[in-house]
Amino acid sequence: MTRYAINRNAWSEQARDEYEDLLAEICNATNDTSERLDLFEDKLTDAVQGHRQWALDVARACRRAGLAKEITRFEDRNRALVSFDGKLLSVPRTQSRKVKVGGEVTYQRELITVWTWDELAEKREEVIKATRAYTVKVQQYDRLLSLRVLAPAAKSPAEAAELLGVDIDEYLGGTEAA
Hints:
The structure is a single chain. The protein has helices at 13-29, 33-49, 53-75, 117-150, 157-164, 168-173, and strands at residues 79-84, 87-92, 94-101, 104-111. The chain has 6 helices and 4 strands, in the order αααββββααα. Helix 1 runs antiparallel to helix 2 (33-49). The longest helix is centred in the C-terminal third of the chain and has 34 residues, at 117-150. Helix content is 59%, strand content 16%. It is flat, with a radius of gyration of 22 Å.
């Protein structure tokens, strides 16, 4: 296992399959996130007690992610005021940026005012890229919502696609205007 993330490549094919099967079982059991987390925690605990290496790796990574989130919550209390679009907004002074530690890329939280110009520019590009990902999600929502107009009696996009006799994946991937 790497220092920062789960290294599934270090697992045997059997271990990868076992973990994937566990995730599928959890996701197929319920749509309720809280119930899924309870199931995951219970099944992961059982696998850790069974000395399954994949379970030890997952438990460690999840614990580290939770601890990192607590550090982020604490540091995000330190705020700066930034003028944007005619409004004064509060943003965290400490933010994360990509760094290499021991040959691995990870994120390190620092005061953004001490970043170099190049580090600020790199972070800006990273945020722009993330913004583009949200734009794609908005397009997906728009495509799905357009089915409401085409099949107003439907209660969901899946139902609308069925009523219209279209494959939802083909519709989403189509180039015609929504």
